[in-house]
Amino acid sequence: MSKPIYILNGPNLNRLGTREPEIYGRTTLAEVENLCQEAAIGHTIVFRQSNREYEIIEWVHEAIDEGSGIIINPAAFTFTSMAIMDALKMFSGPIIELHISNIHRREPIYHRSYVSPVATAVIAGLGTNGYPVAVRSMLDMVSKSSTGI
Q1: Does 30 score more than 60 pLDDT?
Q2: Which residues contact 54 (CB under 8 A, 6 or more apart)?
Q3: Across all residues in the chain, what is the average pLDDT?
Q4: Helix 82-89 × helix 53-66 angle, to 10°
Q5: Catalytic residues
């Protein structure tokens, strides 16, 4: 059995669908999870969300021991959390940093990510459709790393 892909979501993403729909759309986090499950084509995913930094760090630690890849939308922690960055640095597999909006087209405060320097890839600006794109990309990365390609 292959190791799961962890999909970790940061603060306020539990409010997807109602929070600033002009930026984040009307798709709920539960609907995003369903999109990810469909894109995973039977591969196990661990899908979580927290408004607490320490929980996200603990889940990264769990992924270090049990996961094959991490897809993370750190939300506001992207721009503030050296602790999440440090935890991600310990993960030896692929990491995809994901953002629903294009953070580079937003206010300058959103332009400096602590996660990008440790991420394998970054997806931003595809809306919630970025999640299944990230899952398919992660499956490809995990497959290549397990076959040595």
Answers
A1: yes
A2: none
A3: 94
A4: 0
A5: 24, 99
